[in-house]
## 1
Amino acid sequence: MMVGVHNRPASRAISLAVGVFAVVWILPVLWVLILSFKPNEVLMLSGDPVWVPPFTFKNYINIMETSSVFRWLLNSAIVSVSATVGVLFVSSLAGYGFARLNFPFRRTLFVIVLIGLAIPEQAVIIARHQLFTDWNLHNTYTGLVLPHLSLPFGVFLMTQFFRGIPREQDEAAILDNASRFKVFWSVLLPQSMPVQATLGIFTFLLVWNDYFWPLISATRPEMYTLTVGIASVQGNFAQSEGLGYLMAQAVFAGLPALIVYLIFQKQIIGAAAGTAGR
Amino acid sequence: MKHLRYTLITSVAACAFAAPALAEKTEISVSRFFGSCEADYGDVTEAAKGNGECGIITTLINEFNNTSDSYQIKEEVVEWPGYDQLTARLRNGEPPTISVMHQSILSNYASRDLLMPLGDKLTEAGVDLGDMTDAARAGVTKAGDVYAMPFDTLGWLWHTNMNLMEEAGMVNGDGTPVTPSSADDFITQARQFKEATGKPYLCEASVGNAQVYARTLFTLLYQQDHNFFADPTMIDLNSDATRNYVDLFKTLYSEGLSTTDYDYSAATAAFPQGECGVYIMGTWLIDTYQQESLKDESALAGGYFVQPFPQLFAQDGIWSDGHAWVIPKQDLNAEEEAAAIAFLKFLWDNNLHWARTGHLPVRSSIIESEEFKSLPARDRLERVALHATPFPPEVKRQFTVTDYVGEEMQAAVNGQKTVDEAIAAAEKRVNDMLARAN
């Protein structure tokens, strides 16, 4: 029996292709990083010598010396973490409900949730802004977190995951006198950790990088999120005269999200590889 | 006892003198773009020490805060152009006390009764409205009322690298660059430059920046005496004047006489790096390029020359816009309103400082002054002040008009549409939008 035979040339070709794509992907990111350490005045003279000195930390120092930058960082952290926890909570419960419970109009409601995937934010933003004005929620953390809790993708993901778990596990727990909530909490939820990690990372990045809603809802400078705050300090239309500073802003704004991804990458890869504890 | 009495009297007297200094200043908020430069100018309280848009506006506000006994500005920096935020704040009922605004946007807000008329208040505060340039007055006056304090006039310029022009043998005896005086001249000189230097004549910020196409088009329409907003509720681009513009720039692009793949950042950087002879862009870059020309290692070293966009046709005219300061309608008490007017008066008095950015002053007396003319290249820019032509004040949604027209002209210049298709599309998009807005 021919078991575990590896096609070495094909395997090497795939590895090579993946390596090439990785390099192609990472080069612009490296470019941004290196430019962020170049003095603005040197970049105005020529865009060529980015790989050679001089380098400087001045661009990052200038960001740190913007008095509100740490406040903006805190705002983004509060909003992103709160929204992530909220989405995981709501999506898990909703997903369990759609996957396991029978209630009136279940299918109709699920279709309505799926329709939400097709509706762009821009289509509802005016109505949402009006609603939040009436509720006095602008310039509050609640106003920044609430719109993200209704994440159709999260509900869909958790629903599909819970549907994939054999019902026999529920039935076995029910036979042991477990309540519906206990079945959810003790039997199904622990198995969903990799998917939760994926959804958590996805939500965190989505909220962290959100720009337009914070732009028009958190309009007081002390309530800016990092994306809005960093954009506000740009010197002029398109920030053409401080390219190093612009790149440093990009790195600074993206770093927390990258750190979170690196911490949870195992769970994400586990979920993607389908090793979700089944 | 005598000692105690003396101490008490002295203390009370000291408190009496100190009271005005301890009294709270009336604080108002000023929302502005132009960036944040706290690291360089956060502690600088003299406007004369500021450089660039960010530096000068920061030091102006610092100086006002430092010299005013009664008023304090709380600065709120927004990303350019900031109108999404301003509109949202107006809707929330929390507008800033004062906001910067492009004059081309003013009609959007004034027509909706969202701005405080300022004419009488500015006059009472000592602002001589008669000293405003025609362009500035036209930019802030809507339906006969002054709705903003003008801050500058900005216009379309011809930034030139004299080092490359010299290499191309295109320098006049008086040291000025050879400049086209007709569309044919433009092509001929562009070809000559490219043949001599191997570089494109023009740097164009042509990618992702439709407004560039529109601003050059509008300039050439003014110069060909085509009034495209004879009716402020409808645009009329169907003219040989538009076709002349498209033909000119199609030729420039197709013969490699202009860059075609630069966005704004790339083109703005390419010019001082010596990649082209001429950069068609606005007044806001004068100070930047002036500073670059002072660096020995720069390709622009000692060779920066700026002038208004040349007159290529029978009439003279230059696209222009301007910045201004508005007070959104809101409940302000008497002290807050007084603070706002005092700050606007301060900006009026210090308009020369702002003119160091490259933007043109809004006061005729400053334009005619020796101090202004002694600034680098400013003696050549009087033509902009005289012939700067904004849209008619009744035209609404001017930013959007410029975007739509620019996108269609971009398609025509790049060959994606015929000029007639582009004209028809531009007119339809603009006129449909204006019909909804009016």
## 2
Amino acid sequence: MHLDLNSIWFLLVGILFTGYAMLDGFDLGIGALHLFTKKDEERRVMFNAIGPVWDGNEVWLVTGGGALFAAFPNVYATAFSGFYLALFLLLASLIFRAVAIEFRSKRPQGWWRQMWDVSFAAGSVMSSLLIGVALGNIAWGVPVDADGEFAGTFAGLLKPYPLLVGVTTVALFMMHGAIYGVMKTEGELHDKLRVWAVRCIIFFVICAVTLTMATLLFVPHLAPRVRENPWLFSVALANMLAIANIPREFQHRRDGRAFLSSCAAILTLMVLFALNTFPNLIYSLPHPENSLTIYNAASSPKTLRVMLVIACIGIPAVLAYTASIYWIFRGKVKLDKMSY
Amino acid sequence: MDVLTLSRVQFGATISFHYIYPPMSIGLGIMLVIMEGSWLKTGKPVYHQMARFWTKVFALTFAIGVATGIVMEFEFGTNWATYSRFVGDVFGSALAAEGIFAFFLESGFLAVLLFGWDKVGRKLHFFSTCMVCLGAHFSAVWIVVANSWMQTPAGYHLVGQGLKARAEITDFWQLVFNPSMVDRLFHTLCGAWCAGAFLVVSISAWYLLKKTHLDFARASLKVGLSVALVASLLQAVTGDRSAKGVAKNQPAKLAAFEGLYETSSNAPLTVIGWVDEKNEKTSGLRVPGMLSFLAHSDFHAPVTGLKEFKPADRPPVTPSFLFFHGMMGIGLALIGIALLGSWYLRKGALDERRWLLWLLVLSVLGPQIANQLGWFAAEVGRQPWLVYGLMRTPAGLSAVVKANAVLASLILFTFIYFLLFAVFISLLNDKIQHGPDDADLIPSGKLALPTRH
């Protein structure tokens, strides 16, 4: 496969969104599990498990949005104006998730904390669900007219297949978050999270199997692509192995490795998604000729080149300090007076 | 209401609300660097206490800034899709650069700034504080680059026809250093420094009025007033340079700022007055020749009036005029307040001048209002253009978004933002009432170790 600028940008945007799913995925998962514990101190530990990192994790989404705008402005414009209400719901969910983390600890009253706990959990679940529904729609295909504008409706986005992808995303992030939580906690909460993690793994595996069957049976344009490119099976196989490895490592209490397997599962799912979409960015159904591709939706080659230079300067720096932050805040959560 | 009005109201409302917070974070960022730096240098416990207290205030403003900022990143696509297609090449690049250079830096080191006090050594903590402050400034750089390109487009060429037309980069550095960018950047940054400095000044003056946390308040007030004085004076310089740029690059905008209809040499500057749009006349207290001098450094230089432009190409005059004059008036008042405060603080005679302390308490509103008005003036003065001279505002709308949808999102976000604002004010009040922690006079954890030399 020959790698042109447009494909490189497809890859870079993909990396940013994959980074987001892997990192903020566990934050959202912790959020989804948050209300299952009733004790204030345990809830605080949950908050502080993601406290120093969630903000940086969310930047992957913001930068992904920016990169999409810069590299594929037509996709940015069509998708965001087309998914208008869904996107504003996502933004509202992310806002409630974010401010809940900051606000909750500032007052001791029970109602105050409960309010932000609910806001944190609801914001996290809604964000995961909506992100999944958006991905599901892209995979299924959405109506696009000859001008490259979205031609569907809000209700049209809520088809069973995208909803299934949404639920699967919630399950995936819950599993990912539970395993992260197990790594960051000790004592009673740790034991509880261990039980929840197992349930989340089961929940996710059921979703994943259902989704795979639904994809093979009902997404018509995907099957021929797999038939033409049998090597795609190797990615699917890698994905299955990664998923299967999660309960195995987890059972042996190798939590770090279980978490890495969970990351690998997210990575391979995103790769599968990307390979099935490529070179389309928004697949048009029922008129595939209107699809927005990495060529007809891209910025000028000059911009893609300039942005590539910016990415090459920026990304190593980003990786370096992201790694140092995770290193500084490694180990189990200990509550102190700076904690949430 | 139609989609255009609703979308403009929504964009204006969301950006205004967002714009309360980042300037405070940028300004407080500078304050934190100075405070923590002073602590490292002098070892005085009060500086440590200050750094700790103001960090908490910083965390609150930063959190809301981040939460409301994501909306901005996506709102171009949701409501202004045609604009996004038209400028993605240029504008999108600046936003992406902001993400990769500013947001990651800020949010990464923020973790150490907020939670790392006992986990890392002094120097690494100070380094993190500097990086957060730098990241906040980078963010201003890229967003001003993007906005200035809308005011004075450069480094691009137009490709394609009609709906398919778009601006493509020809020269990246020309795009970044477009004609208005440098002056507008420093003008924006001075506004942000004022926002942070006067916040510190205001809260410290409140403690002096209430005769509590006196050492803390005096030390904070000293740092706050110094930065406020420098920033408000620089603000006048950058404002003057910006206005000269507007005179050169966007003459219709300058004419609207001053309500100048007839092109005239010896053009007057209106100190206080009103615009009669119907009769195309501006009256009030006016200094003859001053506008010519400020715009072109010559009392007799001609300044272009609004009549040189077709009515369809003129910005809304009255709002531009009022926003601009409001901003200028407040800006000048802030210089006065900073001078008075610094003078009496130096003389050690601030505590007994309660009227001045009250003035300092209220001064926090000054930069906030002036920042908002300045932003309004810049954006309303750019009308009827979305990108100056290239694309009119109605042309940038999303083709597929209906008025009902915009109304729904507008109502939702108005509700959310009022809620956030109420919580912000109430939590800020909590922090002020609680005051600095005396336990913070003694550094703990790794910070307690003396720095190695």
